[in-house]
Amino acid sequence: MMNCLKCFLGGSTPDGFRTYFGRMIADTDFHTYIIKGGPGTGKSSLMKRLAEAFPDDSKEIYYCSSDPDSLDAVVFTDRKVILVDGTAPHVFEPEYPGAVQQILDLGAYWDISRLKEAKNDIIAANSAYLQHHARCRRYITALAAVAGDTFQIGASALNEEKLEGFVERFSKKTLPKKPVPCTGKTVFRQLSAITPKGLLTFIPEDHSVYLLNDSFYAGSDRFLRRFAEAAVKKGYDVSISVCGSYGNESFEHMLIPELKVAFLTADPINELSVVSKQPINFRRFYDKSIISEKKLRLKFNAAAVKDLCGEAVVSLKNAKAEHDALERLYIPAVDFDGVNRLCYSLISKIKSLSAV
């Protein structure tokens, strides 16, 4: 697909599922289709087919962190159309019904009598599914506490003056001046998430990557915040990916689409390894004496973070198994011919919209 950004709709945090996608839906320049329906009713498949129907369109594809093989949303950026799964845990409702957003109810294609026959099995599978997600949140809460402790140690050891000087020099070197002065904007796109397949990160294939190696989180967060400010001031749009696993929404990754440049943080949580245009080691920005004094504590935290992340992944695997069981109960009760007709109708409507 051409000009296709891949990311997650959101991810699990100590406070539950978090997403910034509500800001997209609130943009009145877009028309948003909010898809409702249970598991196995074809929400993801519908969005995949629509994305494939417009291979040459610029678009954003949002994957599900609970099942990275499924889609949660598709945004046709030029045609100003959004399709998004509006069911739990990311419940969305129209703010301007019909005028800006409208609901697509796939529940209209259910055979309710068949679902009633499977009622007890549906209730049992859904209950187990929710229990696994609750367990996942408990592990992530513990992970955030431990990682947050490391972040605080890193913040206390950070040589801010040295880092600020580096940001200033780096900005001058990597951010070309624009012929016409302007101000960029900041958007949020989730590139990393804990999933049943482990902690995954979407890396834009057409971007050069600067890898920020940071064992203590605070330095890379400060660098990305300051560099983002410099980029926006010079007129560049930036896309920020935050990490809710620290418990404080630290900046973890950043994209500058116009320059085709990505800044990705490699830390004890994501253990990211990628070919980089220029790796940046953040140890030089920390006070060695403070880090040495906290050495044992930091070592314990790094091991604990790895174990807790692993347990969160196991919980999501178990949750996905229950979700798959729910899908098997719902699929026989869905009129997919009706869903197909809806799909063809949507393709026709979107085709009628001229790309800006």
Q: Which secondary structure elements does this structure contain, and how are they paired or packed?
A:
Elements: E1 4-8, E2 10-13, E3 16-19, H1 22-25, E4 31-36, H2 43-52, E5 59-64, E6 67-76, E7 81-85, E8 101-105, H3 112-117, H4 119-157, H5 160-174, E9 186-188, E10 192-195, E11 198-201, E12 208-213, H6 218-233, E13 238-243, E14 250-256, E15 261-266, E16 280-281, H7 288-293, H8 295-330, H9 336-351
Parallel strand pairs: 1-5, 4-7, 4-8, 9-13, 12-15, 12-16
Antiparallel strand pairs: 2-3, 5-6, 6-7, 10-11, 13-14, 14-15
Helix pairs in contact: 4-8, 5-6
Q: What features would you describe in this structure?
A:
The chain is of the alpha/beta class. It has two domains: 4-109 and 335-351, no CATH class; 135-304, no CATH class. The protein contains nine helices and 16 strands. α4 packs antiparallel against α8 (295-330) and α5 (160-174) packs across α6 (218-233). The longest helix is centred in the middle third of the chain and has 39 residues, at 119-157. It is flat, with a radius of gyration of 22 Å.
State Rg. Answer: 22 Å
What's the arrangement of strands in the largest beta sheet? 1-5-6-7-4-8
Question: What low-confidence regions span 5 or more consecutive residues with pLDDT below 50?
Answer: none
Q: Count structural domains.
A: 2
Helical fraction: 40-55%
User: Overall mean pLDDT score?
Assistant: 93
Query: What are the secondary-structure elements, in order, as H or E?
Result: EEEHEHEEEEHHHEEEEHEEEEHHH
Strand content: 15-25%
Distance between the termini: 18 Å
Structural class: alpha/beta
> What kind of sheet is the major sheet?
6 strands, mixed
Principal-axes shape call:
flat
State the total count of DSSP E strands. Answer: 16
Count the DSSP helices.
9
